Structures are given as C-alpha cells and as structure tokens.
C-alpha cells in the first residue's frame, strides 16, 4: 500500500477489518482495501499533516485530527467532510471515540485534552 507523498503518521483498521485508513504528511487520508491492497478513496481538506485517523463505531465515518488544529468527520462512501471543528488549542495530536460514538477525546500539542460531545457539535 503505497501512495502517500511523505511520511505516514497514523493507521487504523475499519471495525469490519476489511479496510485500513492512513494519514500523514501530505495532508490526506487514504482508504485501502485490506484484501487487495488497492487504494479505494482519498480524502483531502486538511491544511496541515494528518496526525490521527480513527473510525466511528458504526464504521461509516473516518475521524481525523490534524496539525491544522481541526478535527474532521469524513463520510467513507462519498468522501465528503460532513463535519469539522477547531480545537482552538493547537495542533491536534490524538483523537479517540467512545464505544457509543457520542464522545470524542482530543489531545493537542499545547499539553491539553478536550472532551467533545459530538451529538452537540455541528
């Protein structure tokens, strides 16, 4: 699986283990088919490196954190960014979602963490 232009900083398996999402220096997220190794889709929109990529529990969204201080929610079928918000706390270095998909915890380069109720964001 090659295709990023630069370092790959983050990888995550889809909940069904059929796909893998990767993100990195080139500001993109790429979705790969695990069985074939083929690129399925490229998600572009961040203005800086993608530092973290995860799937929501249902597997229909890719959630990304970036050095551009934003967190984005991408529809894996359409490739469209369906939601985005700014951490306002500096570069996003990590994101993780709870099992129900209602809460998101982000970490930032300014040594802070922020808990988001994603049901209220948007």
From TrEMBL:
It comes from the Eukaryota. Keywords: Repeat, WD repeat. InterPro entries: Pfs2-like (IPR045245), WD40/YVTN_repeat-like_dom_sf (IPR015943), WD40_PAC1 (IPR020472), WD40_repeat_CS (IPR019775), WD40_repeat_dom_sf (IPR036322), WD40_rpt (IPR001680). The keyword Repeat applies. Pfam families: WD40. WD repeats lie at residues 1-42, 43-84, 85-122. One of its GO terms (biological process) is mRNA 3'-end processing. One of its GO terms (cellular component) is mRNA cleavage and polyadenylation specificity factor complex. The keyword Repeat applies. Transmembrane segments: none annotated. This is Uncharacterized protein. It comes from Chara braunii (Braun's stonewort).
